[in-house]
Amino acid sequence: MPKVLRIINRFNIGGITYNVSYLSKYLAPEYETMLVGGPEEEGEDSSLFIPESLGLNPIVLNQFQREINFKSDYAAYKEIKKIIKEFKPDIVHTHASKAGAIGRLAASSCKVPVIIHTFHGHVFHSYFGKLKTNFYKVIERYLAKKSTAIIAISNLQKQELSEVFKIAPKEKIHVVPLGFDLTKFTVNKEENRKEFRQKYNLSENQLAISIIGRLAPIKNHQLFIESISYLKQNNITNFKAFIIGDGETKQQIKEFCVQNKVSFSENPKDEADVIFTSWITNIDFALHGLDIVALTSLNEGTPVSIIEAQAAGKFVVSTNVGGIKDVLHPNCGYLSEVNDKMAFFDNLLKACKNEPKMYEDGINWALSKYSYTRLVDDMRQIYAQLLKRA
What is the CATH number of domain 3-180+371-389? Predict the structure, then answer.
């Protein structure tokens, strides 16, 4: 039985943990997998419950830190090499940037037959200044040469990696969209909606608008707050907005609320414009209670919140960045360019004036394109091909 060592940056809530967990669980018994990653950061919730709920026992390496730190990074590199020598994997598959760098260097040093890296997003625009960005491009080109294959999560990402940023030739890049267990979004809709709206003191005809994800600069929550202010200025008042998630910019977002005369609270019963809920792990419960899901990011890979929103039949208002255009069904949302604030404001205003309904096209689209069974089947084929060539 071939062995796979799967390495991720950290076990924090998001699409990466779900995907590595599904792959680790459902590629068995054909592949024996060891799952390794770093701990969640301060302000993040741990996602270890995801692999553990599938009967997996991942290894947490405390040496894995998000920021570059040569001492801890070298310690993580040595620990990964030790794991490789003991586990003797046929494949090392890394996911996201830090894991990709340390894991691929260790795998190459240990002469692992097949080395694969998945770009779940990338840091080549909207994250850093020009000098730092160019530095990361050089590193990724070097690491790509040590990789047997690169996985992109959308066709657009493949084009960017091969043609725009020239990380690797297109022949080396395989497109494998993310996959999730979306069945929970199709059941218990009425019960969840009633419970959510009772918990957050929402009347039946009151619109519930939300943005879902970690609170970080790249997520651009300021645009969401400005758009809430714009709704109020245009006499849309029968709504409550929710910021679902947590992270480093929480205090800044609250200050931005004050600047824009947007009231906020962390008490679910308060009559504020915006409720900060922190993380909600049973996100199906939340989505069934919502009407509109917004995304304001400056950069994205394949946003999980948009896939899940569509699986729950919700309307989406988003910036047009990364792979979002590939993910969003055209009948189920509005897109605006990231530098066009007024277009985003007007799209949200227009969405609020639509009659709330269940968007069946989005449900069918999400279930057909982003199921975990399709993800596992795609990866199984790629592993078999690469092992055959090794």
Answer: 3.40.50.2000
Same fold, 3-180+371-389 and 183-369: yes
Minimal CA–CA distance to 118: which of 68, 47, 175, 170?
175
Write down the H helix ranges in the chain: 15-26, 49-53, 70-87, 97-109, 130-145, 155-159, 189-199, 221-233, 250-259, 283-289, 304-311, 324-327, 341-353, 360-369, 372-389
Query: How many angstroms separate the CA atoms of 371 and 22, rounded?
Result: 10
Q: Is the peptide bond before 29 cis (omega within 30 degrees of 0)?
A: yes
Topology, domain 183-369: Rossmann fold (3.40.50)
CB atoms inside a 10 Å sphere around CB 201: 14
37 is written with which tokens?
């990653």
Query: For 296-332, what is each residue's pLDDT tens digit?
Result: 999 887 889 999 999 999 999 999 997 788 899 999 9
State percent of the chain over pLDDT 70: 98
Is the pLDDT score of 172 beyond 60? Answer: yes
What are the extents of the domains in the chain?
A: 3-180+371-389, 183-369
Output the six-digit token pair for 269: 């019963």
Q: What average pLDDT score do residues 120-135 get? A: 72
Give me the pLDDT at residue 357, please.
Answer: 84
pLDDT score, position 355? 81
CA-based max dimension of the chain: 64
- C-beta atoms surrounding 294 within 10 Å: 28
Please tell me the predicted confidence (pLDDT) of residue 127.
Answer: 60
